[in-house]
Amino acid sequence: MSAAPKNTKPASSGGFLSNLFASLFKSSNPDADKKRRLKNIAKAFTKSKFHVFYKPNTQEILPPFPKMLFDFYKATSQAQVYFRNIPNPNQHKQRLITYSLSENQAELLEHFDENKIMEMSKQIPINKIKTQIDHDLQTFKAEFEGERANKIENLYKAFCLFQDFCTYDYYVLLRKFNSGIREFSFDSTPTFDKINGDYITDDLKDFIAVAFPITDDTVVWSDLFEFFQKTTGKELCSQNNWKKIIARIRSIQATRTFDMMIQMISQDPSYASEYNMNIESLLDPYVETLTNDTWNLLNKISEHQKESKANDICLQIFGTASPQSLAHYVPSFNEGMLKKNLDQIIYAEPLNYLKAFLVEYLKKDIREFYDVVVIRGQWDSSISAPMSNAYQELLAVSDQITAFDESFAEEGPMGMKIKTLLPKTGHDNSAISIINRVISDANDAAKGFIITSTQNFVTIGKTIKQLIEDYSLSKPVLVQNWKELEKYIEQPMKDFSVGIYKKIYLFVQLMQQYLTQSE
Asked: So what's the pLDDT on residue 278?
């Protein structure tokens, strides 16, 4: 008995020295270190309560593992059928949103219905509808805030995690353990064979990706099961079974069972499972889409009404809905800009109408009226001066618009600059900035032409209206020689004056549509 310590001491010393040398020099032999780590992993695994899933010596997956998967498959089978019958994710999102709406939101949602808005636009001015819709949208969105928003987002998170787990393809994986298994057949538990671990390594990683996230403690599963009960009238998976599944996965996750299995199968001791817990927002895209769709519809109606009214006015003024007076500052100029996502010219239509009106009416009927009534008329210059100034400014702006339009020709300064810089925008941010600045300056110039010209036409229109009223008096006050002036006009003076006034009035209405839209 007394000799025992003498026999054990050298052995203990040798073991200590061996371990010391191993720790000092293990990095010099990576293969040996890898084998040692894998051996330790295998040893730890055999002590795990899930050691029945895998046999390290033969690298085989054992029947208890597919048996567990079969139990999951059976427990979630109704949910699998449900999700398979509704493959469109947007349908699920819409159901969750509809379920989560308050009574007030459900009522407001009807206000955004396309058909209802279209009907309203036939009876109510579009600007008034826009004001009401904007108020309704703000009220609708305000109820998706705070704790209520968090609850809805958490419900969606639970839904996504549940769906991912339930729609995992258990059947395909189980067929690797029993090729004769039938899909959705649960009358009896099949017999499963053991198989080589290499055969399911990727499947196991895929399963980890859908299984481990369901252990998230922040998920309120009762809200999800209440949602299914109220929307489908049944449980897609019993809550007790779901709790058992979560408990089983949590235990596997805590013991690193699957990680160790993959480490041993792949001979990679450094492997660590990864899975994504990032789930997109449900509310933000929904609210954004609802808002954008509603405003796009309103703007489309507004644009259609404006276009319809513009066409009607153009027909009355020019006899055609599409008079053409510009050659280069035209909508088709934007084609190159659109492809490069650059700024675009936005006043091509109204500027085109303005130039056409200047050519067809300012330089013809209005000039004739001006030459006869303003030049030959005997009336106070303080009254005639504003009209005279407006007329001269309009003649000048007509030439300016012509020069402006020509600058957008391919050989013009604007056109040449944009043509040269456009190919460079893919790699040169300064080219983008220059083009956008050129377009912005051009739009400002075009808007300036329109505003100034409209104001001058208003001045001329008001003066002509005064003159018409003066002409109708038995004793004119403004113009003393109406009778003398009549001989210079082929048609009756009043009819001629009223005709010009109506054209100017219509044209100002046309311009105001575009100016109001741009404000």
From this structure: 84
